Amino acid sequence: MNISRPEQRALHVLALGGRILHERDGGPRVIAVTCVTREGMILAGFDLVLFNRLRRKRLIESRSGSPYRISKRGRLSVRAQLDNQGM
Known about the structure:
This protein is an alpha+beta fold. It contains 3 helices and 4 strands, in the order H-E-E-H-E-E-H.
């Protein structure tokens, strides 16, 4: 599966314990997303388009309305890196 550099960066953050906070419009539609690292920092460059690509590829998932986290498929797809500083 081809995964772009921004997608890889987001998956690395999620694999290290990060989460994606989402905001809905009162219905099922997600209108705003924020990717937060384990330390509480916000990942720059993460937007709704990138979120939808990750969700469409089933690399992230949410259970019972909780924040989105990396799925098993996402963990298997992410490339091994010591850290994502070099990306």
